[in-house]
Amino acid sequence: MLLILTVLATALVAVVASRGRLHPLVGGAVGLAGALATSWFFAGCALGGDVIGENTGVQRVLAVAAVLTVGAGLARTVAAVRAGGGTAGDGLLTELRSGMFRTRSWLPWLLLAPTLLVLAVFLYHPAFQTFALSTKLARMGAPRSADVCLSNFAELLVPSPYLVAGLPLAAVALVAGLTLWRARTTAGTGSHTVAAALAPLGPIAVVVALYFVFAPGRTGYRGVYVATVGISLGIVALSMAAGLALAYLVARRFRGASVYRTLLIWPYAVSPPVAGILFFMMFDPTAGVMAHLADVVGLDFPSYRSDGVLAQAAIVLAASWKWVGHNILFYVAALQTVPREIIEAAAIDGAGQWRRFARIVVPSIAPVTFFLLVTNLTYAFFDVYGTIDYLTRGGPSGQTTVAIYEIIRVGVGTGDLGRGAAQSAILFIAVIGLTVWQFRRSEGRITYGGGA
Amino acid sequence: MSDNLTISVGRRGLFAGRTWHLHVLSLLCVLLIGFPLLYAVLVATQTNAEVFAFRLTPGSSLGEHFHKVWVERGIGRAMWNSVVMATLVTVAKTVLSMAAGLAFVYFRFRGKSLVFFGVLITLMMPTEVMILALFRVTSDLGMTDSLWALVVPFAASATSVFLFRQHFMSLPAELPEAAQLDGAGPFQFCFRILLPLSWNTIGALAVVSFTYAWNMYLWPVLVISDASGQVVQQSLSALRATDQAISYGPLMLGALLASVPPLLVFLALQKPFMSGMAISDK
């Protein structure tokens, strides 16, 4: 079993690497090293035979997937770095400057040392620890831990190995197929238009496939997954749409525009917990202003504290309110670079306000939109913790328990570090996927996040 | 004169529309965005009975609430802890990132691309995703329940290193050459030439890091259990949890007080923040 897998991984990795203009052997070696490291770290038990816990088939599938992905990903990265293109940062590393200090060789290391030390101890080390913990039965405060193979992961998924392997594979194949089709067809032809129109199907397929992969029920992960996807997408959609609309309003040059900008951006400085508290007050079913307003109009104000969908909506509103300033900031900067001449020309040609916005403004700020998409998703994944904790506490009946909230509930609340770490690892993989996607789409341009 | 010009160009450009329309619309949006805060200010002055009766006039309980929040519930102390923590994070992040940016832009050394890649990779490692392991590492180092745990893990960040790096790259390439010809060393160059040219970047970074550190909630909840060491975001929960029935006034006042320092920093450093962010967006 292990042998077949190794051969398979090497072949795959060599193919991937050769596409990046790296010698297939080097790529194969790197990928193999990565794959072996992963299986030692992660999947040794599941491949060796002594699988622990239930869902042994699922654990095997997971192990194979982990080994293959890490091997191929590593080979691809090395290949891209070697080829000097593709991965972000390479273009930036070309030495453009002549005037450099060359006096003491230890000096740059001294300057970098504190940063590198902090990153190593508080980022790299915990990152590896997260994956190490995820295969353990470890309790908060207990020094010892036991190996449990991949059962922490397996219990989050449906028991069928075929579903766990098949659905994501099919989704990925769909994404790859659509991308390939779009790349092959020439722009302007009918099939290109069809391919471009179908392109969003890929990500949707991935999202849907994952829904069926996570186990249903109260102990399963499907509820958390649904809450996370729903709330995150809601926040991203609302805060980006509102951000663009407000930015479009105040990016114009008129007297007082900069004052309006400041008065719209300030919630950026408000903390997620405070946003939670403010909306907790406003939506309070008995004392809040919304209930009073509904009373005045003669409506019955439904309580978000018992209705899950309303609770999710309340979280989305509060979190978007706090974050809209961030999006306004970037959209104002982007809108001010839209060339006026093109818009004026379109206006002369008789294009109306809405047409100009949809056909000229939106496409020309697409790179910023894309960048914001990823920062907004990261915000929606993590920073909502404080808002949720003060607004709904994950309820009612877990319908606002998003991934990060569940990680803390399991890892700290019940003290089950291993299970919490396994959920962290899943979220980690999602974040890595998003970031890699962003890097590849933006072709190596570094943009500034504004988060940490 | 200039107003006229704007309007005549604006009619046909991206920014078409009459200005009074813009003012009315902008004002409405400002009110909409400001509504939660304005409402909180109103409630902060009222007793629970006044809140339930939905009075639109300010109540007279502000002083009483302030005493309750600041002294009895210890928000004052928590605010001080937050100020110290956020200031330390901001200063440490600025100094460390500037030094790293300096090394990446103005020095040639072996393994630079590797190190740079290592820093770049951390962009896809948000602290929250590894928070359980981070907690374990921190408690293994014996740092829990101390200021160290709140400051040290956040003293370095890839984004701020890149912000400085980008800013230094945008400066004229002749600067270090000229400095070297004049016999200035790297440190003199940094303090005499680079620093005065970097205030916008530093200001932007200060707003971002101060706000980020001040607004941290999850991490302090995990590592600080001692009441005297709590930061303000944590201590707000005491305003809601301790009473049998929620007293809305003190809760709102606490939320407002907890928002004052980052808002002040934002307003004070607004100019460098806006220009620093716009530059970095390229």
UniProtKB/TrEMBL annotation, chain A:
Main location: membrane
GO cellular-component term (any): plasma membrane
GO biological process terms held by the UniProt record: transmembrane transport
Organism superkingdom: Bacteria
Membrane topology, as annotated: Multi-pass membrane protein
Annotated transmembrane regions: 27-52, 106-127, 162-181, 193-214, 226-251, 263-283, 309-333, 360-382, 421-439
ABC transmembrane type-1 domain segment(s): 225-438
InterPro entries in the record: MetI-like (IPR000515), MetI-like_sf (IPR035906), UgpAE/MalFG_permease (IPR050809)
Keyword terms: Cell inner membrane, Cell membrane, Membrane, Transmembrane, Transmembrane helix, Transport
Cited Pfam families: BPD_transp_1 (PF00528)
Compartment(s) where it occurs, according to its Swiss-Prot or TrEMBL record: Cell inner membrane; Cell membrane
SUPFAM superfamilies named among the record's database cross-references: MetI-like (SSF161098)
Family: Belongs to the binding-protein-dependent transport system permease family.
Quaternary structure note: The complex is composed of two ATP-binding proteins (UgpC), two transmembrane proteins (UgpA and UgpE) and a solute-binding protein (UgpB).
Protein's recorded name: sn-glycerol-3-phosphate transport system permease protein UgpA
Source organism (scientific name): Myceligenerans xiligouense
From TrEMBL, chain B:
Domain annotation ABC transmembrane type-1: ranges: 79-269
Record-linked PROSITE patterns: ABC_TM1
Cellular compartments annotated: Cell membrane
Keyword annotations from UniProtKB, A to Z: Cell membrane, Membrane, Transmembrane, Transmembrane helix, Transport
Swiss-Prot/TrEMBL GO biological process terms: transmembrane transport
This protein's record includes keyword Membrane: yes
Family in the record: Belongs to the binding-protein-dependent transport system permease family.
Protein name, as recorded: Carbohydrate ABC transporter membrane protein 2 (CUT1 family)
Species the sequence originates in: Myceligenerans xiligouense
Source organism phylogeny: Bacteria, Bacillati, Actinomycetota, Actinomycetes, Micrococcales
